[in-house]
Amino acid sequence: MSFLTYLINGLSLGSIYAIIALGYTMVYGIAKMLNFAHGDFIMVGCYIIFSVSAAMSGNSVVGIIVAIILCTLLGVTTEFVAYRPLRGAASPLAVLITAIGVSYLLENIALLIYGADIKSFSSVISWEGLSFADGQLKIQGVTIITILVSVVILIALQLFINKTKQGQAMLAASEDKGAATLMGINVNRTIALTFAIGSALAAIAGALLCSAYPSLSPYTGAMPGIKAFVAAVLGGIGSIPGAMIGGLVLGIVEILSKTYISSQLSDAIVFGILVVVLLVKPTGILGKVIQEKV
Amino acid sequence: MALLDVNNLSISFGGLRAVDNFNITIEKGELYGLIGPNGAGKTTVFNLLTGVYKPNEGIIRLDGEDITRKNTIEINHAGIARTFQNIRLFKNMPVIDNVKVGLSERFKYSALEGMLHIGKYSKVEKEMDAEAMRLLKVFDLDGERDTLAANLPYGKQRKLEIARAMATNPKLLLLDEPAAGMNPNETKELMDTIALVRREFDMTILLIEHDMKLVSGICEKLTVLNFGRVLCQGETKEVLANPEVITAYLGE
Amino acid sequence: MNKTTKSNLITYGIVIGAYIIVEILMLTGNLSSHLKGLLVPMTYYAVIAVALNLCVGILGELSIGHCGFMCIGAFSSAFFSRATENAIPTVPRFILAFIIGIAFAALFGFLIGIPVLRLKGDYLAIVTLAFGEIIKNVINALYIGIDGKGFHFTMKSSMDLGMEPDGDIIVNGAMGITGTPHNSSFTVGIIVLLIALFIVQNLVNSRDGRAIMAIRDNYIAAESTGINVTSYKMMAFTISAAIAGAAGVLFSHNITTLTASSQYFGFNASIMILVYVVLGGIGNIRGSVIAACILYLLPELLRGFNTYRMLIYSIVLIVMMIVNWSPKVIEWRKKTFGRINLPWRRAKEVA
Fold first, then answer.
1. Which of A98, A105, A237 sits opposite C311 (nearest CB)?
2. Range of the domain at C139
3. Which of A167, B90, C243, C247 has a beta carbon 3.0–4.6 Å from C44's, enabling a disulfide?
4. Count of domains in chain C?
5. Using CA atoms, how far apart are residues A43 and A37, in angstroms rounded to an integer?
6. Is residue C108 part of a domain?
7. Domain for residue C303, yes or no?
8. Dist CA B193 CA B155 (whole Å)
9. Running DSSP on this structure, what letter comes out for residue B143?
10. Is residue B82 classed as helix, strand or coil in its secondary structure?
11. pLDDT digit string (tens) for C306-333?
């Protein structure tokens, strides 16, 4: 029974990673850039929920909505101000370093406003959860909600990409920007839309993350952000189902190795999995193999 | 004994037989042309000869030595050097260094000597510089020795690629569409360069080309590929007069 | 004297000149103790920036886990120095510590290079990050002690070492190594930096260096020119790791308690070094040294504006990247300033 509990907890953490990884993978797929600040968008989302909930005397629904809206704006603005000018720069490292700058910037703004001390985040989900087998197997409400939310997001995103014009434009722009432009697709607007979706997802992930792990600091987003990126790479970067699979694998491995092997070494095991998978399949689980033409 | 002897060479990609039962024999000193319509498999043949692809069937012999299963690096060491359809220079390196990379197999000192600039370093580097300059002079590039390869005009980039290939001291030189993208004047100059390479280095050359003027002007023998198969092989004049070849090129 | 030799000599000259100036300032008492404390870190950050530039600029592979190699150099050498503190006199011990730190970092660079260098581009980068984190994590779970019976080792806890009462725990898990002798000094740091520069700059102007850069520019062409791509990549990566290890030796012999913390050895630290390399100019070794020194000192000197310093730093970073790299800004700069006859531009045209 306890194994099942840990497995479900892993699934829940994995779902959070997956939601963050979706943002990474979409942005990477289309803009071919590693948005290092993505993890910090999560942190920004959490602080917004934290502040709004406090102001609204504990009502977190408004907080979540405000966080989603503001994170979306933040994502689009960041893209416009910091990343778009560097599109087509001589080195792809330029935009990577800029993203690192944005990451520092967001962390330090949070540090100035809220200070370095850890804030205790009250869960946005008040549901106690379910109890099975005479209380031997308890599943927390936040765990169940997290898993459900991630499934809904995955389905919605798949539908959006495959069934809508904007979604198809995204696919086209991620394949070949030049050709997409010739076909009348506004690539800049499509990339902005991708950032908007990714950042909105980051806000949702933030709400779930801090509900499950209720300590909030300016650096809250950094490690989950990097792990979600690992998840995206593990699943095959650019692939939406890949991000989901990668996230789940990572979450489950992390919780199980923390429980059964060593809490000290769990991160090493998580990163070790990435190394092993990439050695077997150099472009991730669902990644496309691209061979250079001679 | 022929310098290059290829027997029954075949490769498939998925269901497509890109090269099917390809045979060619090139004698030492010959200038041989490989022609055919787009997509006929000419570059694939080059990639097979240089180990970029491994053939499903067939044997490649260079100077009697079986090189079929060797990798690109070993094949270069065995004596085949090539140029590329889309120029592949070491763009961010000076012209002379492009050539010196090609010389690395022949002029050696240890890594430690290189890192500390001791021992044989100075002597060997001097010899390399002299040899590189000698090569650059042949290709009329000695005036640009310190220019970055990326900043050379197009025609000179093509020449530098040939110079780099020659620096590896090959037995056989493969040129993949050397005149692609050149104007008539540049093509003329290129023909002179190829003739010069042949004379100067007594080189055996196999080249892929679309420019019929160039092909008929300098190649002694031709092989025509169509849909991965050899359509016709022989002396240039005879091949170009063959009605099948004309059909393949011009259509019905 | 040719151009590259001259350029190399200028680099050494800048480092030696800076050293002399700092020494004079120190002797005349014009350097605050706060500033003095920054000198050794400045040298090891410059050293690791040189190492990373060899990997990113010369080899052309993005690594975001280089602080992991620094971590290995730091711990292996500190372990050695702590274990032999009373057995070997300072100078030979410190030299041996360098050899051990560098050798271990090189060994791990080689071993990690085998899988890493099979990958390409961003996949390669993320795996270097993964290895950096793995190294940090494993060292945090490492317990090594010594007593009358010899060495004890475990990965569980210090209790599990099963030490005799006279035992000495040298590596104590997340608490790291305490009491490493303070042998690093500004002078030693500068010497290490000069050696690192000497090796990397010489390498770039050698047969092997040209092969490495050829692979960076076009690995397909390099292969067909007879260059053994795999072994040259391994060579560059291993040398780069070894130099990062030397920076680690300087690091561990400059502090009392050495821990494998994220602050110094995590991916954020590796990225900070990458920032030095990119702002100093990718492939520009001298630029890395200058950028590392300025960018390390800048936030430290801004401590006066404590709360705002990192904010300013991050904004400066973003603005600098856009001004230096944005294609539109570059075009605008050319248009606007192109017509103005700047003295240095005129000099260039004349030359």
1. A105
2. 43-286
3. C247
4. 1
5. 10
6. yes
7. no
8. 11
9. G
10. strand
11. 667 778 888 988 998 898 888 888 888 8
